[in-house]
Request: fold
Amino acid sequence: MLLPVVVLAPSCGLAGGTASSLPGVLWASVTPAWTPTDVQEFLLHELVHTTLFLEERRHGFYRDMRLLLDEENLTPSAIRTDRRPLDKVFHSIVVATEILQARIRLGTVHHPEDSLHPDSETLRANTLTSIRAVQKLDMEKLLMPRPIEMIEKCRTHLEQIVLCP
Reply:
């Protein structure tokens, strides 16, 4: 129901995605190399983005979008690891946390490194790094209470996750 429009279109190097300006539309560039787990994680990844886009439209997450672009407010993305604006990093923290929780529930914690997302240990470590970087910012100046609460919930979940066999 949240993603009623799926556009299948090939791309060189991109898996697909969703956009806040087109809620409900999913673009996918599925390849034969994708495993069933890759497809599951891709769909979950984009569903999480979509739900965040909708919640953001309804409640607002950011106090001033312009401030998010300031160099001092760029922090590492949990998935891509490059320095990005806070709105993108916030999304990556929530997406990565949901992917790790899904892997635990589905029994896919130990999956190949050449998948769409980093391996579980790396993803967990990168996400905690992103959270720590965001928490060093003046979050009260940049974020509304709901995303601050969500970041804290992600931190709590990640610290409780046990990835060992």
The CA atoms of residues 154 and 160 lie 10 Å apart.
